[in-house]
Every structure is written in C-alpha cells, then in structure tokens.
Amino acid sequence: MVNVSTPVVENTRLTAADRCDRCGAQAHLRVSLASGGTLLFCAHHARAHAEKIKEVAVRLEGDTSLLGS
C-alpha cells in the first residue's frame, strides 16, 4: 500500500516521450523523491522496485496500480 502521506495524482498521463530511467522503455510511473529528484519507471521496473518506491516517494504520478496494494 502507498504511504498515506504520499500524494497520488492518478489521472496524470505520461506520454510516449517519457522513458524509464533504468531501461529506456516507455515510462508509466513518475516518482518524486524527498531529495528533490524525480525518477521514471516502466511497468516492469515499477513492479520490481515497488516496495522501495513506496518508502521513498513523496508524490506519485501515472499508473500507481503498478505498485500493488
């Protein structure tokens, strides 16, 4: 489950120009970090790193269902 204090912007759509920072595939999730950075994740990497994303995210945009419940 996403941290209750993490704002989720569910209707934000990423475009085809948004690419995963890990592999370059189309990004489906944008994660804003407390440190001020932003990371983009494809579906595969969002699922693979879901637990850590939930720990460090201060804002989520895009397909948050990738993080599971």
How do the helices and strands line up, and which of them pair or pack?
Elements (H helix, E strand, L loop, with lengths): L7 E2 L19 E5 L4 E4 L1 H6 L1 H7 E6 L7
SSE class? alpha+beta
Largest sheet: 4 strands, mixed
Overall mean confidence score, pLDDT: 87
What is the overall shape? globular
What is the strand content?
15-25%
**What topology, given as strand order, has the largest sheet?**
1-4-2-3
What does the oligomeric state look like here? single chain
- How far the N terminus sits from the C terminus, by CA atoms, comes to 4 Å
Q: What features would you describe in this structure?
A:
The chain has helices spanning 43-48, 50-56, and strands spanning 8-9, 29-33, 38-41, 57-62. By secondary structure, it is an alpha+beta fold. A four-stranded mixed sheet has the order 1-4-2-3. A hairpin with a 4-residue loop joins strand 2 and strand 3. The protein starts with 7 loop residues before the first strand and ends in a 7-residue tail after the last strand. The relative contact order is 0.31.
